[in-house]
Design the sequence.
């Protein structure tokens, strides 16, 4: 914006104030024209803004064109014109009414772990089974009450909790999950690049996606959502909601919005942010509503990483990755404590071999168990490899009790395995003899060799339970079918960064979620060479003396010059009573002929409405906009 002309800066300010990042019909741009600009100057200012990537021209399928400040640019534009500075609440106790839950990045992680471990199978109609969505909802700190008023309401017959729908919609939008024929599945390559981000980067991306994908219809509410992450609000300090609303009203950002409706929309947004762990909502003793950011406050970009207008994946500037890998603490009671410095990639490795218990208060906890080792083995990781990985990344190593238990559990895993057509295979003849002698399996198994038994139809689960109780449990997956269908291959990451490509937000065109997708409009490029519809049509057919010379014309010619300025939407310089003025013709009137418009005395920068007849001025000339005065024809 440092290189923009004053005219472009003024036009951009008016667009930002009136529409935030909401698209608006191109014909409405005329209503935002500053009174000191003619139509041609406004068109040139818009073209300048488009070439700078600060305004885009979009086009619907049927041809309607819309202007829009790109969402990834609004934070920078807003901070340029509306630097909000509020004093925090001091000397008064604030009671938190909506405390912050776990951070959204952590809640998304839990959702991805659930999908990876248990899967989200789909019904024949393409919806998630109620049992699975209910179990996932019970694990998520964010609740439906946090989300009402921001996200679209679910139909009355929709069994899926809104919290699950929102988290899954985000995972789909981020490209971390895809819908298969029978279940939702993880996109492993995209997931790996996502896990290479630290939590501050994830948070900034998530906030940007939510701002754009679930944008408020009202520009005033969208302005509020972009004002909140500004540097004016320091994490940990309380600020009154009334203070920021007063700022919006005085700045014109809340124009045309009823105060009560605006306040309720802002409260809904803050409640949503509390559910995502980003802020808290409270009240002072005197009854003023307050909010404060937590340590998870997102950072919106001040500049873009790539030129706008491309329909590829969006690129948002992100904070530097401060994650150094870290290490976790394994306690003698098998609980694993994960401190904030531990990378998400190592957390993902833990989730593959341990149960995720808690994601609150910045310190996560997992629990090691024999079942966790069994599930890791089902995904292709031998218990010995898991134990070595845990020891390598545990601060102070493994407690002796934990090490001995891992060794003992490892001995009982893999002693038997399911074979094709439900064939039970034992590791050696000793184990086979134990299976053959089992008192409750005689009717369920038929021995066909020293190490193999055929499992009777419909008895597989019963056999697995009996063998598990005897320390001979086979995996749940049977020949590639059954309960293990949702299980996906697992690898144990090291602390180094992932060697694959960096994470890039997928294009909105490819995003298909559960909450419906907004129409993706084609971006009309701003031709850098000036090609396209001419700004001054028929320029070569008018006398060039009208542009080049300052002179007095006969009444008939003077009217023609003024009418030409009106058709082109440009200014005319006039001499009125010996004073030089610029005039913007806005309306021609007949019988008798007159012209109405804006009159600007030279050097004043002021514009006033005026109506002129041909005899009201003497010398005159057409004023081409500054950008066109050096054209070949001029």
Sequence:
């Amino acid at each position: 914006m440092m290189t923009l002309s004053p005219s472009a800066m003024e036009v951009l300010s008016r667009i930002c104030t009136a529409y935030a990042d909401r698209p608006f019909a191109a014909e409405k741009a005329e209503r935002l024209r500053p009174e000191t600009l003619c139509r041609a100057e406004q068109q040139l200012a818009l073209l300048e803004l488009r070439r700078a990537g600060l305004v885009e021209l979009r086009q619907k399928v049927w041809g309607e064109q819309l202007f829009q400040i790109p969402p990834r640019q609004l934070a920078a534009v807003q901070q340029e014109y509306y630097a909000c500075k509020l004093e925090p609440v001091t000397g008064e106790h604030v009671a938190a009414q909506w405390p912050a839950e776990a951070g959204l990045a952590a809640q998304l992680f839990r959702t991805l772990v659930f999908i990876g471990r248990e899967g989200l199978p789909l019904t024949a109609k393409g919806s998630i089974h109620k049992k699975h969505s209910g179990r996932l909802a019970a694990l998520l700190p964010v609740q439906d009450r946090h989300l009402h008023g921001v996200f679209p309401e679910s139909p009355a017959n929709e069994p899926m909790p809104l919290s699950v729908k929102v988290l899954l919609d985000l995972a789909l939008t981020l490209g971390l999950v895809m819908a298969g024929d029978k279940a939702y599945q993880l996109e492993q390559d995209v997931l790996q690049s996502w896990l290479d981000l630290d939590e501050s980067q994830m948070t900034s991306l998530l906030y940007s996606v939510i701002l754009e994908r679930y944008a408020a219809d009202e520009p005033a509410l969208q302005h509020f959502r972009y004002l909140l992450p500004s540097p004016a609000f320091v994490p940990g300090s309380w600020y009154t909601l009334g203070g920021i609303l007063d700022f919006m009203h005085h700045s014109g950002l809340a124009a045309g919005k009823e105060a009560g409706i605006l306040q309720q929309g802002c409260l809904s947004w803050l409640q949503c942010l509390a559910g995502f762990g980003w802020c808290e909502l409270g009240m002072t003793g005197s009854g003023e509503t307050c909010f404060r950011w937590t340590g998870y406050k997102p950072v919106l970009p001040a500049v873009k990483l790539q030129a706008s207008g491309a329909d590829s994946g969006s690129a948002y500037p992100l904070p530097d990755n401060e994650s150094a890998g870290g290490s976790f603490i394994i306690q003698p009671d098998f609980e694993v404590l994960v401190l904030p410095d531990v990378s998400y990639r190592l957390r993902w490795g833990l989730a593959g071999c341990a149960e995720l218990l808690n994601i609150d208060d910045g310190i996560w906890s997992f629990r090691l168990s024999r079942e966790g080792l069994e599930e890791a083995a089902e995904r292709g990781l031998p218990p010995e490899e898991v134990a070595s990985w845990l020891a390598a990344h545990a601060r102070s190593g493994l407690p002796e009790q934990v090490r001995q238990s891992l060794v003992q559990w490892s001995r009982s895993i893999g002693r038997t395995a399911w074979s094709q057509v439900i064939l039970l295979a034992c590791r050696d003849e000793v184990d086979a003899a134990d299976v053959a002698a089992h008192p409750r399996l005689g009717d369920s198994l038929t021995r066909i060799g020293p190490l193999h038994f055929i499992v009777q139809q419909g008895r597989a689960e019963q056999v697995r339970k009996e063998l598990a109780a005897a320390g001979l449990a086979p995996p749940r997956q049977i020949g590639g079918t059954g309960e293990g269908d949702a299980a996906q291959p697992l690898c144990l990451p090291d602390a180094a960064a992932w060697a694959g490509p960096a994470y890039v937000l997928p294009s909105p065109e490819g995003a298909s979620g559960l909450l419906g997708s907004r129409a993706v409009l084609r971006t009309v490029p701003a031709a850098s060479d000036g090609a396209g519809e001419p700004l001054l049509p028929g320029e070569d057919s008018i006398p060039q003396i009208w542009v080049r010379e300052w002179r007095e014309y006969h009444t008939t010619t003077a009217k023609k010059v003024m009418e030409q300025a009106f058709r082109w939407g440009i200014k005319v310089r006039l001499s009125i009573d010996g004073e030089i003025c610029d005039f913007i013709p806005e309306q021609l009137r007949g019988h008798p002929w007159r012209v109405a418009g804006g009159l600007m005395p030279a050097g004043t920068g002021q514009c006033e409405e005026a109506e002129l007849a041909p005899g009201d001025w003497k010398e005159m000339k057409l004023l081409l906009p500054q950008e066109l005065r050096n054209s070949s024809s001029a």
